Structure formats: C-alpha cells, structure tokens
C-alpha cells in the first residue's frame, strides 16, 4: 500500500509540475511575444529621437492634439514639415491605446477621441506640467491642422519675458450667435484653439494643478473657451489682445491667423499678405497642402537668404573699391597669402556668385544706350497697361506682370516696416495709382511707382493718414543657371562670357542639354496614351476650295498618317455661284475616305444660307455628350503638339480651352509669298513680329466637351453672317462655373485671307469685321516702312 501511495503521489506531483511548467512557458512565451510586439509597435524610439533632436533647446515645448485616425496623415505631415524645426521639443497627444510609427506619441490614459476634446486638452497640459515644467520656458497647445513658422515664433518668444504669466493667441469672444451664451464676463475672453495657444512657464504653473477642478465645472462645449476660463480663474490673466514687443503693432488675428475658408484654406495661391505676415496658419485640413505650404515658406527663406547675399556682395564691392579694386577684378583678389577673397571657382558647390553682376549697386542710370535703337522704352501702368509694343496700345495687364508687382510691393513694404518698432509707426500698402516699368534683358527690371499708403502711428500722438509716395525699384538679373536633376545629385552650371567660345546664349551647351533630354525622354507626341480622348474637329466650309485643300492635306499628314486619335466633321455648304468649289471639295473628301476609312472624315451637306454658328451646331449634333470637340476654321494650320495641348487644357465639367492663335499679316505688304496653295506643313519660322501678331481678341477656335457646350446653351443661332457668335459664346463661358484656359498656342497659325465687310448689314458685326481687316494689314514697322516709301501720296 505504501508503494502504491508513493507511486500515486509521484504521479500527482509530476502532473502538477507539468501543468506549472506549461503555464510558465506559456506565460513566458506570451511575455516574450508582448515584448516583441511592444518593441515593434512602441513609439519609444521616436520619442528618443525627438529627445535627441531637442537636446540643448529649452525654449519651447509643443503639444499637438490629434486623434488616432489622423496619426498617419495630418500628424505625420506636421512632424515631417515644421515639426522638425521647433526650437525645443514637439510631442503628439492622442487617445488611450493610440499608436503611430511616424510621430513621437503620448497616449493619454482614460482619454478618448470624442469631440469636443476638452478632457484631452486639459490632460495634455497636465502632462506638460508634470514632466516638463522646469525644462522649457514656453508651452504651446496646437491642433494637427496648424502650420507654424518656427523661426518667427522663436523671435516672438525670445522678445517676451517668460518669467511673467502670459496667455498668448488669437483673442476671441465668440461669434454673433454666441454672444451671451458662453458665460463670459465683460472683461473676459479666450484664446482660439485652432491657430495655437501659448503659455509661459509661470502661467502653466498657476493653472495646471487645477485642471481636474476646471473639468468638473464646464459651462460650454467649447474646449478653448473653457481653457481660457480656467486660465483666468487660476492664473489671473486673459488672452493677449495685441503684441507690441515685435517690429510692429501686431494684432493677434494677424500673427495667429485663422482662415475662414474651411477645408479650402491655403489650397490656392499662397502669395497673400496674410500668409506672409502670419506666425501660425490654421486650418490646413489636407496633408498634401501642409507640404505645399511648407515648401512655399522654405522658398521665401531662400529668397531672403539670396537677397542677404546680394547685399553682402554690394558691401564687399564698395569696400574693395576704396582699396582700388574694380568689380571685375574681385574674383582675383588675394587678401593675404593663400587666402583669396573668393576661394571657390565657378562651377563648384561653394561658388558665391559673380560679384561683377551681384555687386552692382542700384541706379536708374546703370545702363547707358549707345544709339537710339538701344534706348529702353518705358511702359505706363495705370489700371491697364499702355505699351508701344502692341497694335492696341491699351491692354489688360497680364497675370505675370500683376504677380510681379504684387511681389515687389510686398517685399518693399517689408523693408519699409523693418524699423517700425523703433519709429513707433506702421505703413500699409493700399494701391498703385500709376507707374512706369521697363525691361532690359541684360540688366533687369526698372520700376517707378506712385503708391497710395496708409501711415499709422501707434506710439505717442496716435494718428492714421493716407499718404502718396514714389518708389524707385530695381530688380537685377543674376547669373544664368541650368539645373540638371537626377536621382543622386543636383548639378548647377553657371554661364559666363568665356563659356562655349562666346556663342550667343551659350548655344553649344544648351544644344548638348537638349540632346540629352531628347535621348532620355520621348517627345510630347509620343507620350499619347491610347485611352486619351478623340478630338473631333468640326469644320464649316462655304466655298474656299484652295484653303480647304490645304487644310485637308495638312490633316491627312498630321492626324491620319500619324494615326492620331482624331475625327473630322465637315459641314459643307452648296451654293449656286460656288458649285465648282462644292464639287471639288466633295471629291477631295471622298478621296480621303477611300484612302483611309469612311469613319475618319464625316460630311454634313447643307444647302441653306451660311452661318458659322449654325454650321458648328450641325456638327455638334453628330457627336455624343462625352465627346471632345474642336471648333476650327479652314484657314488654320497646326502641329501635333497642339493636339496634346487641347487634351491637357480641356477638362470635362471644369475647363474650356480658348487658344490664342498667331495671325499672319497681309502678304502683299511683304513682297514675298510666305505660303503656297498646296501648303501642308507647320512652319514655326512664320512666328515673328514682322509676319503676324497674337490674336488676343479672337475666340473662334475653342475646344470643349459637348456636355459642357449643351449646358451653356450653345451658340446664339439668331446670329447670321460674319462673326460675333464666338464673342457671344465666350461671354457665356465667362459667366458660367467653367474655368477658361486662355494662352498663346505656338502650334496654331491663322493664314491671312481678305475680309469682305461691305455685305455685312449688322452695324456691330461690320465694325468688328473692319477692325479685324485693319489689324491684319501689317505690323507697325511694316506700315511705317510703307508710309515712308510712299509718303508723297499721303496728304
């Protein structure tokens, strides 16, 4: 019995040991797995990386509130842009159990991602207080859709005494609908949370120990309102109304800028004074625009550094001139033995630029013409542009000139206001009353501007008054640089007068680069995707056989032989007095249809009176709603690249393409035959000022999708005879939701043909016809030569 009991005890003990061992190994394995998972998923490495980056930077701690669904999008974009440049440390705070491999993250215990994020905000501030209160001077609470210019933020904070209680941000008291509903006293306000809120160390010390009490006494659902109430109660301060320690009397809504456009904020043109003035910008809802905004701000910093470099070049040139060295000798100057003034040669990464160009001081007399032809002519700017270079001297200012003037005035006002703090005043730009500008391709741009400004004195005897001032501005061109970019390296090549044996525009090097691009990249017309839309040419014809033969030969050569995705619809009119033209044109079409396919050229025969608008409408009726249409004239010649521009610039439900074509002058003034009847090839040499002009006010050539054309109501079919239907249609597009793409197209040339205006009965149409006829006689230079040759016949 004893032996049996011993065996039984051993068996039971063995089972117990086995169970315990198995549990131990299971627990150990789970622990090992948890450790592995923790090592793989924990953001500890990111936190350590951020600690290392922020080492020896104890100015600012930035806490960004985010949610788990935004960690890999908005939060990541913040950390990869301005977050890397914080003069201190940045951490992201989200709900419990949140995890990210992209940002240094603190998952707040007991906090979820519900809205409004009051508990998240107060808990984040308590975490800052508990862990970092003695390590940083300033603490910032921000959202994951705010952008910050950290250099300006650092400048702001270093100019303020952090030992005092400060509560800084864009001051708010609620909108009109919220007045009286936020439980705010008459002297109370709050800092709006979106653009960011800044606490000094002292203010956070006073408020943070009482966050639990504040959370238990909430009056509204607005997180920033309750935060302001808590600061007022325990720190005894309100949000700052304005900041006078900087270079101007800056309102908080200016430097902590909140854009009212919602999701569309900062998605368009960033060249706005609000963007240039702001320290923080909110909201940037989509990550791609956070990167875009960051790139733009980086570009502004590059421009500033480049301008500082030019100032240094000028200072060096002036200083060395006192020692007897001219600008063109500075690159050879040796200061002391083995220490040249400019140690790096042209083409090296450390090359500092050509002082002979960059060191030239500003002066309206820097360029001296040697003869009458070299005199630079000024153009007048006054709402519109008055220029001698165009047949119509008064014309609308182009977008490039408007943008350039905007850049100039913005930079000029920054320079004017750079000493505003010392002088106790700020000057705001209002408008350009008038101005003059000229362009010298060698030296740069000169501007004389008459400005209307607003002078605001905010120190001492305060006043606001409008003033007029003249500004003389000069923008100097620097070296020509070709930047060749590949995956491994960026190479900058600088041109000088010795490059490529003094060839104009360094032709050999340019040809070399173009040939390299040509070998590595297919030409534009080889990039056509087979799924790209078919371009349906709609061509009205009434007589004009020779012109039609030229057009059809060209269409066959460019579109049919090259297998382009196009179709041609011809609306062919039959007139008794033009029967020979009708028969000949019909024969040409039949020959093309037999040679290729009957589907490539379709014909609509008409026997009524010709009207271009009605003729185009007949062609439209042959197409489906999703078809891309090109309204074209028989006098047009084009190249293959034009087809791609039509496809790129015409987008269904979005854009309509109105190309600006080059119109040739009357060849009888040239004494040459520039084009023959059998012409079928595009010749870019025709495009020059003597041969023709860009027809700015012609709208007859247009590409549009049929569905958009139908939505607009199409052409006014009541218009008959010569023209005007295209102008009427252009006005309809302007007044619609569609965007107009209007640009000079170097592949479209309008061949001259005489206009017959005597038979036009409508007064407006006849005036347009006569105007067109007059503008196509010849260039100003040609007409002047003609007059000088035959002036004895003129009274």
Automatic annotation (TrEMBL):
Its main location: Golgi. It is a single-pass type II membrane protein. The keyword Transmembrane applies. It is an enzyme of class 2 (transferase). One of its GO terms (molecular function) is glucuronosyl-N-acetylgalactosaminyl-proteoglycan 4-beta-N-acetylgalactosaminyltransferase activity. It is found in: Golgi apparatus, Golgi stack membrane. The keyword Transmembrane applies. Gene3D superfamilies: 3.90.550.50, Spore Coat Polysaccharide Biosynthesis Protein SpsA, Chain A. InterPro entries: Chond_GalNAc, CS_glycosyltransferase, Nucleotide-diphossugar_trans. It comes from the Eukaryota. Its EC number is 2.4.1.-. One of its GO terms (cellular component) is Golgi cisterna membrane. It holds the Pfam family CHGN. Keywords: Glycoprotein, Golgi apparatus, Membrane, Signal-anchor, Transferase, Transmembrane, Transmembrane helix. Belongs to the chondroitin N-acetylgalactosaminyltransferase family. This is Hexosyltransferase. It comes from Brassicogethes aeneus (Rape pollen beetle).
